[in-house]
Amino acid sequence: MSEAPLAQLCAAFGHQLHRAGIPVTPERSARFASVIELTQPREVEALYWLAKVTMCSDVRQYEIFDRVFHQVFRGEFDFSDFASDSIESTEVPVATSGEQNPGDRRESESSESSPKGTSATPGTPSVEDQDESEISVLAAVSMQERVNDRDFSQLTPEELVLIRRLVDELPLVPPRKTRHRSRKARKGNRIDFRATLRASHRTGGEPIRMINRMNTTKPRRVVLIADVSGSMEPYARVYLHLMRGAVQALGAEAFVFATHLTRLTRPLATSRPDIAYKKAAQAAPDWSGGTRIGNSIKTFIDDFGRRGLARGAVIVIVSDGWEIEDPEILGVNMARLSRLSHHVIWVNPRKAVDSYQPLVGGMAAALPFVDTFVSGHSINALNDVMAAISGASERRVTAC
Known about the structure:
The chain is an alpha/beta fold.
């Protein structure tokens, strides 16, 4: 195997797997390159397992993967032949993976009536087509690196599609709370005297074996409240996608507000994304309207929070803090919300600007009652939001 840049080699390997029928995305190829840089494998066997756990998502893909891996990494063809016809001579069967989507099937059907193929369908592509496929794969990997720090308000429609896929990969880990119930544990933090004394009856009354117990935990409720007014519209599209993932993965509660509050938990629980977003848009007619943060928080507390939805919960508010009404209303209701909830996280994209200082307006009134203050303006900044949610075990922490 001839030497080649790592990113190009991983992209070419993912391209070969895709052509063989394994639905490898550019994100997986980029992840494979990152894993290689992190672990620095010295043997082909180690590289084999790194590639397998990164590129495969179904045991039915293993046979196809082994064939392609041996061809690429065990010297059966040279990497310089990636854009040549010699690759076409390798006999790699097309996988019947369960991950193939309807779009891939339509492309397969169209390839039967055309002499040319694409990187995702069998056929007899020309050298020029393969060059274009290689360029497109590398461009997709480069695009992901480019959008990681890009502000959501500056994204193109094509980049927004990629952002939605990246949001799906974010780790949604709920914070934990200690339960009153405990269980036996070898390394528990306290002695179970009753169980220890009962066990001592078998050893002549001598408590030879100490039985310990430890407290159990359960997930805390997570409530997301997003501003969908005109000033937050570029960010609302991304956070609506994140809210749908939180509703389905964590059982979270989802609300949006502009001039008034709307609950979107049930619409976003729909399994099909297009239907879920359509229902959400229909449920919130004030989308891209004005901003009444204080009254929206008051409505949440009066109608949902005091009844139990906010008690002991982690509240995530996504808003730039622009308030068209008296900021004092927001301050009063944020104080109420802080007393009800366990932890309040405020996500403000304007915080990403170095010169930003929340000294006036709604943000200044709300900030004294916020436990964690983050920007969340990009994919990398969303990782801070995820970390703040999963780590919301303390009542008050330093703002990120």
